[in-house]
Design brief:
Layout: E1 4-9, H1 13-23, E2 29-35, H2 38-47, E3 52-56, H3 69-79, E4 84-89, H4 94-101, E5 107-110, H5 116-126, E6 131-132, H6 134-143, H7 145-149, H8 158-168, H9 173-180, H10 184-198, H11 203-212
Parallel strand pairs: 1-2, 1-3, 3-4, 4-5, 5-6
Helix pairs in contact: 4-11, 8-10, 9-10
Length: 216
């Protein structure tokens, strides 16, 4: 019986080491490649066939195009639809977690939790089924489906809404400043203020939040 071929992607080396060590305990699973960012992952997938990708959601890469988070997941699904994706994440926002789960990935696990579930998740998604870790399910259960549906999105100012909308559409801060005829620092501050109101701390989180609430 052929082994399940796995590629691991994370910008934290110790996470990659932990994933590899956990999967090495199972004879039916083989780690065939590792990547530490979106660009290296795409290059790896172009040359290395695999069945399952175990990846972090956010892997910021200095000097590389802003393609991370859900954008990266969509590109991988479009280019390699046969690959099953398992996302390892430390995010705890129920809205973002739901967005990940409904964006075409096959599995979601909590990065800070036990790795004991990982091999089970890999086998499960390789059979074409979905897998959500116990801790993620507990987070969603605590939030409650009704409460999640009724979550009120914090009100942004018209200018903050404009800046965030252009940013998640793919424009850089400099491009937004030129389009809106504003100072780059002003646009950067408006984006930062919007992120504080929305309770997100990085760009992939912002995109995921907007997408989770149908705003991207």
């Amino acid at each position: 019986m052929p082994k399940i071929r796995v590629v691991v992607a994370d910008d934290h080396p110790f996470v990659v080491i932990g994933v590899r060590a956990s999967l090495a305990l199972h004879e039916t699973i083989e780690v065939v490649g590792e990547a530490n960012g979106p660009q290296s992952l795409m290059r790896l997938l172009e040359r290395q066939p695999c069945d399952v990708l175990v990846t972090d959601l956010t892997m910021p890469e200095a000097g590389a195009p802003a393609e991370d988070g859900l954008r990266l997941m969509r590109r991988i699904r479009q280019s390699w639809p046969q690959i099953r994706i398992i996302v390892l994440t430390s995010l705890t926002n129920a809205g973002i977690l739901r967005s990940i789960m409904t964006d075409g990935v096959s599995g979601v696990l909590n990065k800070t939790g036990s790795m004991e579930e990982l091999a089970t998740a890999v086998r499960t998604v390789s059979y074409g089924r979905s897998y959500v870790s116990k801790s993620i399910l507990a987070t969603l259960a605590e939030a409650g489906s009704e409460a999640s549906e009724m979550t009120v999105v914090p009100r942004l100012s018209p200018r903050e809404t404009e800046v965030v909308g252009l940013f998640v559409s793919g424009l850089s801060i400099s491009e937004i400043a030129r389009r809106l005829d504003r100072n780059v620092r002003t646009v950067s501050r408006q984006k930062r203020d919007a992120m504080l109101k929305l309770g997100v701390s990085n760009d992939p989180g912002l995109f995921a939040f907007m997408r989770a609430h149908g705003m991207a």
